Amino acid sequence: MSEKSEIVAREERMPEQTSKLATLTPLVDIFENDNEILLHADMPGVPKEEITVNIDNGRLEISGTRKLSATGSITWQEFGDAEYRRVFSVPQTIDVAKVNAELQDGVLRLHLPKSEKAKPRMVEIKAG
Q1: Number of domains in the chain
Q2: What's the pLDDT band for 119 if we cut at 50, 70, 90?
Q3: Residue 17 above 50 pLDDT?
Q4: Is residue 56 part of a domain?
Q5: CA nearest 101: which of 92, 114, 88, 110?
């Protein structure tokens, strides 16, 4: 076996090691009423300090990093550190200054209030 083919064979046997986290898409529920759009995103194990919410030019991006710490040797592992990431298009009628978020029991709740001009209104009919 030549030296070159030996290196190639050795590289094929070695598992690829990367430092990137697994990227997961959080499951979401989206509700809409006359006043707001409410988005619930499932992000278990992500502390609020690791979550970012960006709204820019009709684009909503949520992301968060879950880092698990364990003691002892791993006997079985089916999930570990991961990054949650999801992007949505949102209407320009969202009042970005009033958007708020809360995290409870691993669920991120985003309140995206509609601007006044986007809310439905009743039109009075006048007699002629």
Answers
A1: 1
A2: low
A3: no
A4: yes
A5: 110
Going by pLDDT thresholds of 50, 70 and 90, the confidence category of residue 13 is low
Question: Could you tell me if residue 101 is inside a domain?
Answer: yes
Q: How far apart are CA 4 and CA 6, in angstroms?
A: 5
DSSP string, the chain: --HHHHHHHHHHHSPP---PPEEE---EEEEE-SSEEEEEEE-TT--GGGEEEEEETTEEEEEEEE-----S--S--S--SEEEEEEEE--TTB-GGG-EEEEETTEEEEEEEBPGGGS----PPPP-
What does pTM read for this prediction? 0.73
